[in-house]
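Is iron/sulfur cluster placement plausible here? Inputs below.
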Amino acid sequence: MFCIQCEQTLVNQVATGCQFKRGNCGKDAPTSDLQDILIYLLEGIAQYAHRARQFGASDTTIDRFVAPAFFTTLTNVNFDAGRFVGLIREAALIRDQARGLYLAACERNSMQPEQLNGPATFEPAATREGLLEQAGVATMRPAGEDADVFGLNCLILYGLKGCAAYYDHAMVLGKESDEIYAGLHKYLSYLAERPQDIDGLLATALKVGELNLKVMELLDAGGTGMFGHPEPTAVRTTPIRGKAILVSGHDMVDLLNILQQTEGKGINVYTHGELLPAHAYPKLKAFRHLAGNYGSAWQNQQSEFQAFPGAIVMTSNCLIDPNTRGYGERLFTAGPVGWPGVHHIENRDFSPAIEAALQQPGFDVDHIERTVTVGFARNAVLGVADKVVDAVKSGAIRHFFLIGGCDGAAPGRNYYTEFAESTPANTVMLTIGCGKYRFNDQQHGDIGGIPRLLDVGQCNDAYSAIQIAVALANAFGCGVNDLPLTLIVSWFEQKAAAVLLTLLALGIKNVHLGPTLPAYLSPNLLKVLVEKFELRPLGNPQEDIARALKRAS
Ligand code: SF4
Ligand code: SF4
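Reply from A.M.:
I modeled the complex. Tokens:
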């Protein structure tokens, strides 16, 4: 195996990248190798689908396969080697279907088809053992390759993975776009050719960022269209007496189905991790048995799930081994998620999880009520834009910090807690993603009625945060880079890589990135990113705050 896609990848004096029997996330070598073969076949599908589209030919079966399949390969999503063998078989059939589409389009247009190779002609072995022997051809490895070329290929691949995951969330919400399908195929097909040109690679990375912005816009429209615009909402963070189901991940359609299927059954539904912002959506908060949020960010799930006296449903990233603490039998996976031996929910029929919840004891008492407030997405914030603009003009608000992205277990993550604690009282923090759990239970006060901590939503809601920044820039008649705004991006996995590329594509400068920088970026590439985009590695929180305030003054 070789995998370098996330922040917790192996980096020591002998190795860079997880490359032994098991990655630091728990992914074993066979699963990693099978994921590589799946991605290779997705590139093969894209080689044909991209070319067929040039002749106006497309096929929804082919288009709809790529994003959900790609999503399974993100960090902490699917650890089930058996699922990947099945996906590889499906991908090979879809690739052949795409080939047929392309050849027919060439024939209709009296054109000679291109002789494609690599993923376009790869034939997966008939057995799992055979597939594992083939993995070398599919795995991206830096050996013998220019470090900058390797780093940029990774940046594009991981940005595309994040983009595909967000697009899958949008598809679940009923949104589809031919432009997005075309973009995913185009850039995957580009990667299939193992490009070497640095300028071309850099330009393509930014194009992936542009594509991701469109995906995030679609996702925002899907979420607000289906559930309404988030409203500021106090969410209970302590449990109440009764049977319980915990829903983690990002998928609000799964949450809606669980709420509908548990109605009248005496089960309280709790959110976990990135589903906390779901409480702010009118259609979801209307369910009286949506009882609150339990626990915190993904990396604490093993102790939190062990202690939870009910069933648990993991709807998307980020999953950790459920067996070491003995709750695997009452954990259920859905959508792209998988763990060997864990019950996988099909067709959104959550009855096995509901049965399991009824068999568990549930909470025996009401705990003392505590709350956090969520729901400051673009509509809520821009609804008080005049108040915000006046507060900036009067000097009551001196600066905004957007602290967004993923949480993780690394010790450097304390940076975000310290950062939030050290922000001056005349500054406002906006937050997206699960990194917020580092500071969202602290009291930060308000500025003339505007809370100092505004929870914009999931990492999926980065579009909302960007819209807030753009609207503020318009109100002040300046560009986003001229606003008194600093972005602190906490990256962990590939969704964050996609958001980073979007910020760079928008020309947003001076993004602070951490807690460590991606191991796949070579020193040269980092230099380019620092020079061109003023990308800044995180330093000391107090010094970073002081520098940001000085830069804006
Ligand atoms: S996802 Fe991250 S931790 Fe897991 S194998 Fe890949 S780089 Fe390593
Ligand atoms: S923000 Fe990132 S780390 Fe956190 S749950 Fe979502 S995908 Fe995982």
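Short version: Residues 3-6, 8-9, 18, 23-25, 27, 32, 75 surround iron/sulfur cluster (ligand 1) (CB under 6 Å).
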